[in-house]
Here is the input.
Amino acid sequence: MGGLKVIFKKELSDHFTSYRFLIIFSLIWMVSLLITYMVGTSIRDELSGVTKPKYVFLLLFMSSGGFFSFIQFVAFFGPLIGVILGFDLINREKNEGTLSRVLAQPIYRDAVINGKFLAGVVTISIMMTSIVLVISGLGLKVVGVVPGIDEILRIVIYLVISIVYISFWLGIAILFSILFRSVTTSALASLAAWIFFTFFVPLGAGIAAKSFVPPGEADKTEIILKQLSIQRSVSLISPVSLYSEASSTIIDPTKKTTRAYVLMGPFEKLSIERFSGPLPISQSLLIVIPYIISIVAITTICFAVSYTVFLRQEIRSL
Here is the structure.
């Protein structure tokens, strides 16, 4: 336990004093504030002179600020935080010879990998919490609306999902840092994984949907629905899709399903007014709990693989 505490404090200090962390943190802060200000100004102008509706505060996170919303920004660029924090955590110390000297002390290997990962998760948590708090404070000033308990709980759940999501990418970066001795190779491998899951998986999902269900003349609606179903199923392979659907559903109380299109029967159409109001947070949580469990599971598996490989790897000083 003592070794874990030493490694944790040392890594946490390194993260907060490194220039690359300060640069990426400042960049994300500025972009987040810009998005919030643009969205807040738009909401204030549109709702000036009228009674502000319920859940208007959540629009700060899910409305587009001219180009994308804060949720979309974290979904696409949040992984870079984890990659930057973890791509050289192990191989850099191997190349410098400091890792073998650390392990020569009364510090176990599991304390090293656990301390590094825990320090990264705490760094991500502090970063995301501070950004969400600043966004909320700016939103209070610009929009002039105090969030309710339900809105605060939704923001807290969204914050937890975001921390776990970015921690997954931290685990991916640490895994490549263990597998490759070259820092450049591990960085490129981490970026390649981000590009693959962010861009190529959605593109491949669309191609797969059209391949399995080719367009035809008869019953075009059914064909389109089948293609959308296949496309959605394939896209859920990507952690980016899992996070996007979970976060957008938990932040938007009017969203009653993660699906973009819902086919309704005649009785469902007749009774749709019964469900026209916003969902309580408990119901929204029930919808997204499979996605949250999936994100937690892949994060745990990724770190478990990194843990196992690191414990079995031979470490020699150069």
Notes: DSSP finds 13 helices and no strands in the chain.
